[in-house]
Every structure is written in structure tokens, then in C-alpha cells.
Amino acid sequence: MTEPYEPMPDDWQRALCVVAHPDDLEYGPACAVAEWTAQGKFVAYAVVSRGEAGIATMEPDATGEMRSREQLRAAAAVGVRDVDFLGHPDGIIEYGLPLRRDLARSIRTYRPDILVTINFYDRWRSGDWNTADHRNVGVALLDAANDAGNPWVFPELVDEGFPPWSGVRCLAVGGSPDSGHAVDVTKGLAAGIEALEAHAGYLASLPPDNPMADAADYLTTKLGRFGERFGNVPAMPFELIGI
């Protein structure tokens, strides 16, 4: 029997959401972001690439420009004004010191209480294989959370004006198969739908039968299904990993 989700702790004030691509957060976690910003919490985004390899029929430079603009509009829809693009190449994001350094810099910049990302395990809930970009960003983010607090790791960041930050309490993994907590997104659902619809150019590139092409139906159905384990309200589940 599937256990109900527990409410996600809300005794924090600052979050940094880190994902590989523009639109990654908009398939559910952005609805939780809308709830948090409405409560007065600070949320910033760090997007590792500009999604430039995401549309086969469109040149990468044009795709990256379009998807970056769409991500800024999507973030604004849920109350996020701080969005950084880290400039790693879409589709071939590598785990390694450059990525860890950039993520540690972002953590030191925003000094969050929690980090947020999406499922970075080998497989999606459906059993389909996850992408290398998602896997590499998730693992690097966990390592960077520790790097950010160590003055002897990436000491050049101190020279750049980014002192260590060891205040990260946990990583919240949206949509993880091992989720044990959830956020009631009843109030944030409409803003989350607006955020996903902001990716109009990207969504238009999807096959017409792709369920994500209809943002409202996709999110309402998905979050309603998650909510069956959370009092039958629209809900976004998270796995919490201690740092």
C-alpha cells in the first residue's frame, strides 16, 4: 500500500532551484515555487544550459535565445526574478569540476536554506531512461552543496567575492520516485500552468500527441494524481536529501 506524503517543511526562507534546461522546473515544481513566493519566500533559479539543442528543426543559437526568453517569462509567472544561465552546452553537460565550481558559486551567491532540482536518477517514474544532462546536474549539485561550504575547495571563488556558505539544509528533488513529502499547490497551480505555457515556442515543437503540449491538462492531471497521496488536493512531491 502506498504511504501518504508528509507535508514538506516550510521553516525556511531562501531556495535556489537548479536544473539542466529551460522548462525543467515547469513540469510541476514551478507550482510549488508559486506557493513559496506567495508566502514571501525568496526563490532564485540557476539553469545550467540554455536548452539550445532541444529543437531538431531549429538552429542552436536561435533555440537558446528563444528558450532563455521563455524561461525568464516562466520564472516571472511564479514570482521569480533572479534567473542565471550558467552557459554549459545543452545535451552534453558533463559532471566535473567546472560544473561543481559554477554550482558552488551560485550557492554562495544566493545563500539558500534549501536547494531544489528535478529527478536526476537513472529512470523516470515511467521506467524510461533519464537524460545524461539531468543525471549529471543532480549529482554535481549534491557535491557542490558541500563544496560551497568548504573554504579550501575552489578558493578562487573567495577571491571573486563569494565566501563559503554552509547553510544548505537539504536538496528537494521534485518528482523523485522516492518522494516522501509534498506541497499543496492548489493556489499555485494556475501560476504554474502560466509558467509552462510561457514555453510556447518549445511546446509547439513537440508532437501534437505529446501530453505536455496541453499545459493545463498535463499539470492538472499530473498533480491531481500525485495528490491522491496528499489529501486529494493538487500536490507536487519531493524527496528530501540531507546535506
Please state the second-level CATH architecture: 3-Layer(aba) Sandwich
Shape: globular
- CATH homologous superfamily identity: LmbE-like
Poorly predicted parts: none
Report the structural category: alpha/beta
Residues in helix, %: 25-40%
As for the number of domains, it is 1
Integer average pLDDT:
97
Strand count, sense and barrel status of the largest sheet are: 8 strands, mixed
Give the CA-CA distance, first to last residue: 29 Å
Report the count of strand segments. 8
What order do the SSEs take from the amino end to the carboxyl end, as H and E? EEHEHEHEHHEEHHHE
Features of the shown structure:
alpha/beta, 37% helix, 243 residues, eight-stranded mixed sheet, Rossmann fold
Fold and architecture overview:
This protein is of the alpha/beta class. Helix content is 37%, strand content 16%. It has an eight-stranded mixed beta sheet with strand order 1-7-8-6-5-2-3-4, sandwiched between helices. Strand 3 (42-47), helix 2 and strand 4 form a beta-alpha-beta unit. Helix 1 crosses helix 6 (189-197) and helix 2 runs antiparallel to helix 6. It starts with 5 loop residues before the first strand and ends with a strand. 47% of the residues are buried.
Summarize the structure.
This protein is an alpha/beta fold. It has helices spanning 29-38, 60-77, 97-110, 132-147, 156-159, 189-197, 200-204, 215-227; strands spanning 6-7, 14-19, 42-47, 82-85, 114-118, 170-174, 181-184, 235-242.
Question: What's the structural blueprint in terms of helices and strands?
Answer:
Elements: E1 6-7, E2 14-19, H1 29-38, E3 42-47, H2 60-77, E4 82-85, H3 97-110, E5 114-118, H4 132-147, H5 156-159, E6 170-174, E7 181-184, H6 189-197, H7 200-204, H8 215-227, E8 235-242
Parallel strand pairs: 1-7, 2-3, 2-5, 3-4, 5-6
Antiparallel strand pairs: 6-8, 7-8
